[in-house]
Amino acid sequence: MSTASGTGNIHLHSSAAEIPLYAQIRAKLRMDIASGLYPQGEYLPPADQLGKEYGANKNTILRALRMLRSEGVVDFGRGRGAVVLPASGPVGLDDISDQLQRVVNLADVSGIPRAAIISAIERMPRMAARHGRAARRGAVRGRRPGWSQGSSCGE
Known about the structure:
Elements: H1 21-34, H2 47-54, H3 58-70, E1 74-75, E2 83-84, H4 93-110, H5 114-123, H6 128-137
Antiparallel strand pairs: 1-2
């Protein structure tokens, strides 16, 4: 299934099979937020849409969102939608390593040489400068086009 954010169902890897789906979704959302896919002040898609994207039911998505809320990554309530909060600190190397491992695994099964992945990383522009300017201006982004104003992230 193709989605607006370019992600699809979470595919369990042998090491990930022991990790509950809600924890895998939490980790994926956390990395999407850290990478700038969902910048601070921006709303996440509604829980039912995230459920379709990740192949999980709404309760599983809400459990992952509640974990992120308890970590201070997002805030939401009944009928308000989930909004990304300003980062309280940097992402750990373990989180980045996990994400890189998924990229390398995908490249390996797709026949893409690791040197091509390294080259692609080196060509990527730095995102921090672009998002930093918006944060200094106090810009708060609204909902993404096409998302309903009603929320299904409430408890």
